[in-house]
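Throughout our pipeline, every protein is held as a single compact record rather than as scattered files. The record that follows is passed on verbatim for readers who wish to inspect the format.
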Amino acid sequence: MRKTAILFSVAALLLFAANLYAAEEKEEAQKEPAGLFKNQTHCPVMGGEIDSTVYTDMQGQRVYHCCPMCSDKLKADPDKYFKKTAEQGILFENIQTVCPVSGEKVNDSVFVDYDGRRVYFCCDMCIAGFAKKPNEYLLKLDKAATVNEEPEEQPGEGESHKMHMH
């Protein structure tokens, strides 16, 4: 009887720990709740009103500036400006077309808000992968934007979705 009680207690403790880990992983990926943001109206670098013809496309986001000189400062320390604007409740325009994890087309209903960036995915499974290495996948969004300027690959080519099936 005593062994059964101990085994039950250990099993309950393990289950609790697993649930706590899963909740922390999801919380890490979705730092800001969706729907609490406003559109960008001021430059994150200098604070002046934005000029819609002056912007930097970075990590799947289009960041508008007040002048062309602000782009280099954003590129030098993007996390600083993304976090600053997230604290102010500002969300940049998302220009992302591919999932940073799989490379597949994004699903507009599958996303997380991460340090001032709304990041879209093709499916819920990719969110967990992103949560493990967010900075690596954010950099992939910059590469994807460059690659998208070239002709698209034919189905069956490339590395899309080797990690899971839809």
About this structure: Confidence is low (pLDDT under 50) at residues 13-23, 28-34, 147-163. Strands lie at 38-39, 51-58, 61-65, 90-91, 93-94, 107-114, 117-121. The longest strand covers residues 51-58. Residues 2-29 form the longest helix (28 residues).
